[in-house]
Amino acid sequence: MSKDKSYDPLEGFRRMSEMCEKQLNGLLYMMTDNNEFVRLLKVGTESHARYMELLRKNQEFMAGVMNIPTKKDVANVAKLSLQTEEKIDILEEQIWNVQDNLSSLNRETLAMFQEIVTIATQMKMEVQKIGQEIAETHKLKEDFQELRQEIDTLNYLVKKGKEKDKEKELVISAAGSKDERG
């Protein structure tokens, strides 16, 4: 039996590519080893760089005249866009912090108002108690004044009774001394 080999066209292409690559690498190596070629390449590169700079300046000038953005303008816009994004992120963080602070302040304020309402209610109850105590004090004062008047009246009556007793004693003692004299 014979070995069946299938024909692969890519295999031939790969071999041809490798041979061309080796030949070109050898040619480039020989050329770069030559000083005259290096100098010529340097002059060509410098002139190419000058022409590219001149072309860039002309493109910028024409773009400015025609009001078309250049690569530099697009790059500046992208840079500004990134800076703006960063600033927006910072502002978002600050807004979140402010919102958190406001919500905590609102909770604290609500708690403070609830405490004020509680204190005001307690004060109202205390004022009512004090009002009742004042009313009771006035009533006690009136009662004390009535008792004082009664005591003063009793004292007056007792004093009058003592004076009458003294008069009786004087009358009795005067009558007794008349009896003794007579």
SSE topology string:
HHH
| Main β-sheet description | none
- On the 0-100 scale, what is the average pLDDT? 87
Number of strands: 0
Please give a structural write-up.
The protein has 182 residues and is mainly alpha-helical. It contains 3 helices and no strands. The chain has helices at 9-32, 35-66, 71-181. The longest helix is centred in the last third of the chain and has 111 residues, at 71-181.
List keywords for this structure.
mainly alpha, 182 residues
Per-chain topology:
Layout: H1 9-32, H2 35-66, H3 71-181
Short description:
With 182 residues, the protein is an all-alpha fold. It has helices spanning 9-32, 35-66, 71-181.
